Amino acid sequence: MTQTRKSRLPMEKKPDFQLSFEFFPPKTQKAEERFWNSLEKLIPLDPEFVSVTYGAGGSTRERTLRMVSRISSETGIDAAAHLTCVGASREQVDEVVRGYYDAGVRRIVAIRGDPVEGVGEKFIPHPDGYASSVDLVAGIRQIADFDVSVAAYPEMHPESSSWDEEMDNLKRKRDAGASRALTQMFFDNNDYWRFMERVEKANVGMPVVPGIQPIHNFERISAFARKCGAKVPLWLAQRFEGLENDPGTHALVAASVAGEQVSELMDGGVRQFHFFTMNHASQVMALARILGAGS
Ligand code: FAD
User: Fold this and answer.
1) pLDDT band at residue 58, thresholds of 50, 70 and 90?
2) Annotated catalytic, 22?
């Protein structure tokens, strides 16, 4: 692919090309088969790590542990376990961290989690729990030398009242021991570029890897995006309009939308991508090829 644009990131921030893939822990036997099939297809892309999410309020605790343990022991790929501190005491969270360590997992994606009542509700920490992701990162790093990733929000976290607050929180996560941030999904790359300018200006000093959400199902992804505070641009909605019962065209449009997004980011100097796979491989494989990997 020819580089048509001037890099929008400083040269020293450009590592070698790296991919990571996010999965969620499957609920049924059939879903578990899809999980492993998809993972198997993505392994040849040599990801830096594969992460497995943690259900709201710890609802997938055992399943997340089981999946990351197996990835770690059976595939040779680094597994990263997500962990939240919602509705759990420090003791309970620390026990999960030690369980990950004992299972050979050395990477954690440390996330506060959303209030049990739902996104947008006021977050009330457990009385004996970690109060925020900053506290959680510090707690994890006290237990062992984990590689810790945290979350970042190109469109600002819905609970933040200003960009200064947002940047301060990101810097506190870094100071507590995080090595990188993975962003929330976004569909307008200008939001990422503007965010990265703020990150530079605030001297955040750790990589902020764009989280790319391929659109497997526009209705579902857009509802989820809105819930997380990520906007769904009108042009995007228009591209999928009327395709509810046309899965073939829907898939082609989705591939072209995500292809444009990653190409533009790559042309702007991005070399690390975190893909929200939704446990499906094909779109991610196509995107990796567009980026020049896996072909
Ligand atoms: P925090 O960094 O703690 O920040 C949340 C808000 O609180 C910010 O607005 C911040 O400015 C504010 N804040 C922080 N500290 C203070 C303070 N002391 N006083 C006042 N305000 C403060 N959710 C899951 O349940 N499971 C997952 O596996 C999961 N994985 C995710 C992966 C990625 C890449 C991303 C981007 C999100 C993920 N989430 C997951 C969603 C996440 O739980 C929500 O976005 C949540 O609302 C915030 O988590 P956080 O770690 O960013 O919170």
Assistant:
1) confident
2) yes
